[in-house]
Automatic annotation (TrEMBL):
The lineage of its organism: Bacteria, Pseudomonadati, Bacteroidota, Cytophagia, Cytophagales. Keywords: Aminoacyl-tRNA synthetase, Ligase. Residues 17-107 form the YdhG-like domain. It comes from Fulvivirga imtechensis AK7. One of its GO terms (molecular function) is aminoacyl-tRNA ligase activity. This is Leucyl-tRNA synthetase.
Length: 129
């Protein structure tokens, strides 16, 4: 377990910490091969240096973000930003549907846009998988 991510989780309020710990456990279980670290002040998982999934504390919730999530074609995920990201927001750990999360994490390995090189390509995303 990444100690920096655990320290991030431990710094949250009780309810948010519970959400973060469930997300950490499930993401780690389904993406054991992924590199994980604190990136831009939030826990993020990477495959081949490409960001795949992460979570962060917003004012009123914990946001789970999939960088390529708009391509998953999942009703539960909401579009986020101008690229291909999609999110789910949680205010309680019991809102986390582990079956949905497992499916999204599987898709995060199978469907990837190249965020690693987005700056080099001047904001143009290319599909990797």
């Amino acid at each position: 377990m990444n100690q920096d991510i655990q320290a991030y989780n431990d710094s949250q309020s009780n309810e948010d910490r519970e959400i973060c710990n469930v997300l950490l456990q499930e993401i780690s279980r389904h993406l054991p091969e992924a590199e994980n670290k604190i990136w831009h002040a939030h826990p993020v998982w990477f495959l081949e240096s490409n960001p795949i999934v992460g979570y962060s504390k917003l004012k009123s919730c914990i946001r789970l973000l999939f960088w390529s999530g708009q391509s998953f074609e999942e009703k539960g995920l909401q579009k986020e930003g101008k690229f291909k990201a999609a999110e789910m927001r949680y205010t309680s750990a019991d809102q986390i549907n582990k079956e949905d999360l497992a499916r999204w994490l599987k898709k995060s390995k199978e469907i990837q846009w190249d965020y690693k090189n987005i700056v080099k390509r001047k904001g143009v995303l290319e599909r990797l998988k």
